[in-house]
Write a structure and sequence with these properties.
3 domains; Alpha-Beta Plaits; 6-stranded mixed β-sheet; 10 helices; D-Maltodextrin-Binding Protein, domain 2; about 300 residues; elongated; alpha/beta; about 30% helix
Length: about 300
């Protein structure tokens, strides 16, 4: 059966590269869409079996559009993650020289990651934000801009020349993409897993964040990401996005989730899934499965 995949387009984006890296089978139909919200909507409506969207960058942090799209929908789960090394080139139509570049288009994240190079080599050029690096390259091919900061794949997709290569200010930058599905049961643990969730506290009060963090700390769970984001319910109202090492089926994680559900106004579970780097985090002796089994046996014997 052909798998239908919606991804943030147009063709030539790093998201398309993530799709190819994740799904190497030929039996899939990958459809580019203009926004993350539309990719998620196609998933919810049944028009797509999976959606691949950017989630986090090692330089610029989280992708707000993805966080909002996940918060707006129920039963959309992260089932896998993909790490893609992000590198940028300066692309232009054939025959264009560096001295001809007056207007450059790119995505704001790409602009931030190439700010130093642009300041040195294109100090007088106007920088125009676009919805994606590939869309910027497409617009250059259409004659809208002089050049685009985009991927090598985008140069091939739109017939552009590379005026400069590997212009990112920091080498080795990674973008984390996530594979989303709708209404999918929880997968089995692999031993190297990550759990993503959103916690909304009852009210902003002294110790509220500490109470939330203690649910993980006392159970030996490492948090690989903690970010506060507005809930949209009013100024000063925030929720906390959390990535934690471990799987929801593990005793320590399931107990932490129970603690959060009791102490928070709401908890949105977004999935437990294998880490792309396959890194296994250390588990304290007091928090491993044997410790939980012994504690449970002691309690039952009282």
């Amino acid at each position: 059966m052909t798998s239908r995949i919606a991804y943030l387009g147009p063709p030539g984006t790093f998201t398309e590269q993530a799709v190819r890296q994740w799904d190497t089978a030929a039996e899939h139909e990958a459809t580019p869409v203009p926004t993350v919200a539309e990719a998620v909507q196609r998933l919810v409506s049944g028009e797509a079996d999976a959606a691949v969207v950017p989630f986090e960058n090692s330089v610029e942090g989280s992708v707000p559009a993805t966080l909002q799209a996940l918060l707006d929908q129920d039963r959309v789960r992260v089932v896998e993650e993909i790490l893609v090394e992000v590198q940028f080139d300066l692309l232009a139509r054939p025959g264009t020289g560096l001295d001809d570049v007056r207007v450059v288009a790119t995505h704001p994240h790409a602009a931030a990651q190439t700010r130093g190079w642009s300041a040195r080599h294109l100090p007088d050029a106007q920088l125009v934000p676009e919805s994606s690096t590939a869309r910027a390259a497409q617009a250059v091919a259409e004659g809208t801009y002089d050049a685009a900061i985009a991927s090598t794949e985008a140069a091939r997709s739109y017939g552009l020349d590379r005026l400069a290569e590997r212009i990112a200010d920091r080498a080795g930058a990674l973008t984390r993409f996530v594979v989303l599905r709708h209404g999918t049961p929880l997968g089995a643990p692999t031993g190297a897993d990550r759990t993503t969730l959103v916690a909304l506290i009852w009210q902003n009060r002294p110790g509220a964040l500490l109470e939330l963090l203690e649910q993980f700390a006392v159970r030996g769970i490492d948090l690989t990401r903690l970010e506060s984001r507005p809930t949209g319910e009013g100024l000063g109202e925030y929720c906390f996005w959390i990535d934690a090492d471990g799987h929801a089926s593990e005793p320590r994680m399931s107990e932490a989730l129970l603690g959060l559900r009791r102490t928070c106004r709401d908890v949105r579970f977004l999935g437990s899934y294998p880490r792309a780097d396959k890194k296994v985090g250390p588990v304290p002796v007091h928090a491993d499965e044997q410790a939980y089994a012994e504690a449970r046996s002691w309690l039952e014997g009282l």
